[in-house]
Amino acid sequence: MIPQYLVDFDLGELPVVQTDCIVIGSGIAGLFAAIKASEDRRVIMITKKTLMESNTRYAQGGIAAVIAEDDSPAYHRQDTLMAGAGLCSSAAVDVLVNEGPEGVHELIRLGTLFDKEDGVLALTKEGAHSHRRILHANGDATGYEIVRALAEQVAEHKNIEVWDDHYVIDLITDGGECVGALLQRPGGGRLFLQGDATILCSGGAGQLYRYTTNPEVATGDGVAIAYRAGAHVRDMEFIQFHPTALSYPGAPRFLISEAVRGEGAVLRNIKGERFMDRYHELLELAPRDIVARAIVSEMELTKSTFVYLDITHESVDMVKHRFPTIYETCMGYGLDITSDWIPVAPAAHYMMGGIKTDLNGESNISRLFACGEVSSTGLHGANRLASNSLSEAIVFGRRIIERIRELQPLQRDQVAVSCKLGRVESPTQAIVERRLKLQKVMVRYAGLRRNEDMLHKGLEELKRQLPIFNSCLTKREEYEFANMLTCCLLITESALAREESRGAHYREDYPKRDDARWQRHLLQIRELGLVEELSDDV
């Protein structure tokens, strides 16, 4: 069993800092939650790198909300449920589609400058949306604009203290409650940060895979530390691979937004043939999992490592205006997307599963909350609808703060918690080598397409790394690797257990969706293992 704590410690021997609310992570979820909490509380925000480095920053497409007169919450609800493939929480979907528009207007009040056309908010359409409801900023830099606006608010607020370059090693629980976190400072010293409420907003886990659209910080820390603390983790088998990441020599797997297809781009194999009509009636605007697997099939059929995304039939001015970031980035590698087809391939993008929460973002551990990609509110089901993630962070972030205001302050002057396993041995193999091997294992055995044999082999490979938990870990990259390994084990074990194909989880040996047996969630609990839970979307 994975131990509760990664390191040996005694809180009685460590410096203690107390605050009202601890926010871990600095994406849209963390920034917004910190701003809302700071209205009447002292907040310490922890970020393991800098305030501006998060998955949100790289979100291009936009934020989904019902704004247009011809749209409605009922339409948005229907689209979300369809994409979620029978595993959405109907209640969570209702919360999002009804409270999302107010969340967008709150972002505007906080300084976010969304694009406008003729004086009104500009809306676009993305895959599996029935209406134009995606707000965007600076064309294709929506995430960056939201983070910019919110980060400015955070930096100026007297009730928010930002701790850059601090790493949360573990959550501290006492008497069934989360009472704070064990942190490592930039210089290596440790401290105990105690708080009345702790909100995990630490983002996703794209770095578990060799090819990802996520930044280097996306290592699944939040899910891993919550799991070790005893939180229920749900739906970890559902990893969304974005169909279209740039696949070009010398370039990172830069995201080519779904909005490019929403604005008319088509997919072609290396022979130049458009192929999506062979896979789905919605063609390029089919749900992401279907598009991603179609691309892999075409790559195999044509013995290629990529396919092409073609938007050259659109006007040069439109492409440059609507997708300036993508245009400029591709130009930096010698690709002019107004005249050249863009080589693309799928890459790990988004984690549908995470820490199970209620509709107020609270986990099964009292005083521990989760918001954004690290959480499993039930909204996304087996496959996230494009651009619902930014909306989720705002809607549930507000609900979390309302719930925290109902909590009584902690009545503990002294928290006597320690872990003394006698770890003395340092990790034997270089962490950078272990990390690369782990990423390759996940791509090979637990990627876009899976089967029982592959998943068993993957688990065997991963379990060879378990001695890391008995080692004396002292560095950030060592903690990160332990967290990545934890998440990889959770994903692979749940993928092996789910003997069907649904949403982003595709089993070659069980290619059909099986509602009679599998319209249910898989919970993973450190001391109990896998537990099944019926879906309420029936």
Automatic annotation (TrEMBL):
The active site is at residue 288. Its main location: cytoplasm. It is an enzyme of class 1 (oxidoreductase). Pathway: Cofactor biosynthesis; NAD(+) biosynthesis; iminoaspartate from L-aspartate (oxidase route): step 1/1. This is L-aspartate oxidase. Its EC number is 1.4.3.16. Keywords: FAD, Flavoprotein, Oxidoreductase, Pyridine nucleotide biosynthesis. One of its GO terms (molecular function) is steroid dehydrogenase activity, acting on the CH-CH group of donors. GO terms for biological process: 'de novo' NAD+ biosynthetic process from L-aspartate. InterPro entries: FAD-dep_OxRdtase_2_FAD-bd, FAD/NAD-bd_sf, Fum_R/Succ_DH_flav-like_C_sf, Fum_Rdtase/Succ_DH_flav-like_C, NadB, Succ_DH/fumarate_Rdtase_cat_sf. It is found in: Cytoplasm. Belongs to the FAD-dependent oxidoreductase 2 family. NadB subfamily. Pfam families: FAD_binding_2, Succ_DH_flav_C. Catalyzes the oxidation of L-aspartate to iminoaspartate. Residues 435-524 form the Fumarate reductase/succinate dehydrogenase flavoprotein-like C-terminal domain. It comes from Paenibacillus donghaensis.
